[in-house]
Please model this.
Amino acid sequence: MASSTLPSNGRLVNIGTHSLALYTHGPEPSSSKDPVVLFISGVASDALNWQAVVRLLGPSLRSYTYDRSGYHNSECSPLAPSAENVALELSLLIEKAPIPNPLILVGHSWAGVLTHEYIARKGTDQIAGLVLVDANHETAPLVMNVNDPILWTVAAGVEPYSAWGVEAEHKLTQEEWDALRAAETTEKFKLIERKEDFEYMPSFETLRKKELSKKQPLAGDKPVYVIRGTRSRDWNGLYKAGVAKGNGTEEQRSHVRELIKTVDAKNEDLMKEFLKLSTKSELVFATESGHFVQMTQPEIVVDGVKWVLDNLPAS
Model:
């Protein structure tokens, strides 16, 4: 991938086997002891979904976004994109960039698993705090199935971003939104999306076997801010759009309506599990967002970063 395609704030970082695209936002930290923010995207997502959050953080704080292997400006990895391998490559990116500062890790969706795999590999010495944005807990598939086949039968042929309300309610500029959608239509994106989808479900059991939950609080007294999205908004949007197309039998539609009734309470219980990560943790609700809080209510993510900064342990 030619570096000429990179924006002025981007660079390719060689992690040994290949290079990852890292994007720098905000001012240079005054010292290597000042915390910086590192954003970690969910499954089948590149750095572009954080653009509204990065813009709102503005000139106050150094932050980094990156494209995982195979996405957008990053090169493809020789390794399969398992959560363990993604965490390995993230640790190499931080080392080779280098980013020596304490890290506030901000992770969406699958990044709940990725962040834990990073902690399993590297510990929490460099972590200053966490912001978990409707993140996946290791027990999530035991409680709710986001790939429920009946849900997606009813939603067959539905455009998800439109049905979820993200297309109408996102806070990206038109240019940012167009860039995000354009990246997702490329063959390169579709290839790594398929590979990650294959690795997604097995990653939960792999993480559970590490039994990190027995070592709580993993983050000690480092601040952890947990944001619960309102998943029922997404699933209700899929349901309504699918029914409008005539999809699903009445039995299938009834099944989906029952899923929608219970999903938010189930998700809230999962988010409460994340509070055990630290003796200093906070749970907030993004009531006007589905799963993609960072695009529809980016200010809540920014509030989370500020809360972490305000609650850092005294050095």
